[in-house]
Structure formats: C-alpha cells, structure tokens
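Morning - manganese (II) ion inputs below, output right after.
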Amino acid sequence: MSFVFDPPPQVWLPLAGSDARFPVRRVYCVGRNYVEHAKEMGFSGREAPFFFMKPADALVVVPHGTTGQMPYPSVTQDLHHEIELVVAIGRGGARIAAADAGQHIFGYAVGLDMTRRDLQGEAKKQGRPWEVGKAFDASAPIGPIHRAQGASPMTAGAISLEVNGSMRQSSDVAKLIWNIGEIIEHLSALWALSPGDLIFTGTPEGVAAVSRGDQMVGRVAGLGELHVAVS
Ligand code: MN
C-alpha cells in the first residue's frame, strides 16, 4: 500500500529548552475573551465563551531567537493583529471540569490570531462562517511551547504586542473573561480534546491593522518573545 502522493508533514512546535517536538493536532480559538476588546468590537456583558478553529497548517512556527515571516494575505485590505496566550493540551479528555483543567495542560506559548478584519466583518454582517476572516494560510504565528509550571492553570501575566517599537496591546492574562480552566471546561464539553490541541485564549484591547514591512513583537510573561515580520 502506498499513498497516491506524499502525505502532508506533521505540524509541530519546538519545546523551549529541549530538542523534543510538540506535535499539533487541532487549533481552537476563543472569541472576545477580554472585556475591553469585547467593547472595542461593539459588545458588552459576559456572553458564554464561543469558539472557532484554524487549520494546524495555518501556523507559522517561529523558533526561539528567530523572526517569523508572515506573507500579507490575499483579498484583505485590513489585516489585524491579535496577541494571545496559547494553551497546549498534553492529556486529552471530554467534559473536563474547570478544577481539573490543569492536569490536561502541557504548556503555553505566545501566539498571534491574525485576522482579515474586513472579511470577518462582512461574514458577521451576512451571518456567514468566519473561516475567510480567521482561518487563512499563515494566520497563526506562534513561538515555542514552554512547559507548564505547577498543577494549576496560569492565572496572571503581562501580555503585550509592539508594532515597529510602538505598544499596541498591553494587558494581563488575569483579565481574561473566561479563565483557562473555564475555557477548557466549555471547550471539552463541545469537542473531546486530545494531546496536541492548541487553544488561543483571546486577545486584549488594542487590535489594529498592520502593513507589509511591519515588525511585530509579542510577549507573555515567562514565555519569551514572538517576533514576526509582515512581508
Ligand atoms: Mn482572537
């Protein structure tokens, strides 16, 4: 038996301080999960968490100490940055209680949920799916995985994004509307999680457009820096 063509390579992320590789299965994302970002998108109040996905091969893997290259995507005139804390699942499960979520977390990374905002806005208006706005090629630059410290999910830590040296987004993971345990509880009620799943946990306020030639530097305390150039 042979494949009719070479199967696509396994997508994987480097592990900080190790030669080991983290194989990626699915990429889940949480929508509107910081109050000030929900407001800037025209929403208020605590809605139930909601989710969308990106294909694993939309990740732009950026090893430590390098600058990732993100080609400016087609069709859009309004490419937005969204800096996010990413949770990496190491143990699968369904219907995981928030209190048990820490046992399922392998580690964390810094990621960017890049968004074709004009196409997403049109999809919202028409009541259509979000894939054209969210799940395009190279839409998810991400740095190495850092192993979780301790048994409980991360609850705080500065998160920020600079573009060309100017601060665009600056907040704290403590301001998540739905914390990591709650995200895993809600998500695992909808889909069974497996090792290799990534969860982009939402972005704070300050989302805005980037152009070709812009240099982005994302940071989450304890997880290093994510350098990405738009080309
Ligand atoms: Mn996002």
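Note: The chain has four helices and 17 strands.

O.
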